[in-house]
Every structure is written in structure tokens, then in C-alpha cells.
Specification:
With 203 residues, this protein is an alpha+beta fold. Helix content is 50%, strand content 14%. The chain has one domain. Helix 3 packs antiparallel against helix 4.
Length: 203
């Protein structure tokens, strides 16, 4: 399979899976609902109005800026991906950039469109897709998160500086497929950094 087809297939499948998972969670779980798969793995539906790990800034203006920034970043990633495809870079590098692009696009879709295609249900009801009463407007949608891995929790030993004696949970963040794509892509780029970021030869 050509590098171009690998990139296209990766992007199409990754975005499709991301959106199918998010729409399923959104239309089958009420906000805050949790299903325990294993003690260390749970499906926990939350919505993220800001950046990764739930960080927010600047209110409504900050939300718009973040969405527009992601769109600009995606344009740069497309250029980067096309250049590596043309050069015939290592397949792992093509996959890495394709995954990062897919993850960025997946979360952009949430931010741009979810506010106008879903409603905000009350109580323990679930959201409705293509609702006549959407919860927001274009560019102000909330990102759907669901994967939760509380692998360990407990009181940290007192000898640990600053946080010793405090309650700690690992891993405490809830994420989605798009976030996983970006993380996987970054790890692959790190592992194949010499191929992804070749140094120019000097005479």
C-alpha cells in the first residue's frame, strides 16, 4: 500500500471511529454516568468545554480562540503530512502525523458542530442527535470524553516532597479516542524522531 493510501485510510478510519464512539456515548449515556468495565477501566461520560484535561480559559472568547487555533494547527499538520508522504518517509512517521491530524480534527468536529446538533437533556435523560432545541451554536460545542483509567488510588507516603500524605489517583483524567490518537502519534514521533525531524547535512 502506498504511503498516501496509508495516510488516507488512517485518517478516515480514525475520525470515523472517534465520532461513532462519541455519538454513541452522547446518545446512550446521561452526563456523569459510569460503567465499570474493570476496576482499572471505566466508561465515564463527561463533557469538556476547553483544552486537554479539562482546562479552560477566557470564557466564550477563549473557547472560540481555542477552536480557531486548532483549525490553524490542523492546516499546518496537513502540510506536514503531505510533505512526508511526498518524501516517502517511514510508515511509522506517516501513521504518527495521520493520527495527530485525526485527533485534532475529531475534537474540532465536537467544538464546531456538537452545539448545534445535540440538546441538553435534564435529569437522567440522554441527549438527542439533531435536536430541534440544540444546546449551543457553531464553534461553541463541548468535546465528549469517556475513557477513564483509575489504575491506582491511595495516600502517598509522607516522604514524598510536597504531596506526601495526600490522596492521589493515577490516572485521573478522562479522555476520548481523538486524545488517544494524538498521544499515540506523539509517542511514535518521539520513537522515530530522527526520521521525522532529519538534521540537515552541513558541509
Amino acid at each position: 500500500m502506498s504511503k498516501k493510501n496509508i495516510a488516507l485510510l488512517t485518517v478516515i478510519l480514525a475520525i470515523f471511529i472517534d465520532q461513532i464512539v462519541k455519538i454513541y456515548i452522547k446518545t446512550n449515556f446521561f452526563l456523569g454516568e459510569e460503567v465499570k468495565v474493570f476496576n482499572w477501566f471505566r466508561i465515564h461520560f463527561v463533557e469538556n468545554n476547553g483544552m486537554a484535561m479539562g482546562f479552560e480559559f477566557g470564557g466564550k472568547a477563549g473557547k472560540l480562540f481555542l477552536t480557531l487555533f486548532r483549525m490553524v494547527a490542523v492546516s499546518a499538520i496537513i502540510y506536514w503530512l503531505v510533505e512526508h508522504v511526498k518524501k516517502g518517509s517511514h510508515t511509522a512517521v506517516i501513521l504518527a502525523i495521520s493520527l495527530i491530524f485525526s485527533g485534532a480534527v475529531g475534537n474540532i468536529i465536537d467544538s464546531v458542530f456538537y452545539g448545534v446538533i445535540f440538546n441538553t437533556p435534564s435529569g437522567n435523560n440522554i441527549a438527542t442527535l439533531f435536536s430541534a432545541e440544540p444546546y449551543g451554536e457553531f464553534f461553541y460545542g463541548k468535546v465528549v470524553d469517556m475513557f477513564y483509567f483509575p489504575i491506582w488510588e491511595g495516600i502517598l507516603p509522607d516522604w514524598i516532597p510536597f504531596i506526601g500524605g495526600d490522596f492521589f489517583r493515577f490516572f485521573n483524567y478522562i479522555f476520548n479516542p481523538a486524545d488517544a490518537y494524538i498521544t499515540t502519534g506523539v509517542v511514535l514521533l518521539f520513537l522515530f524522531s530522527k526520521t521525522a525531524f532529519p538534521k540537515e547535512k552541513t558541509e
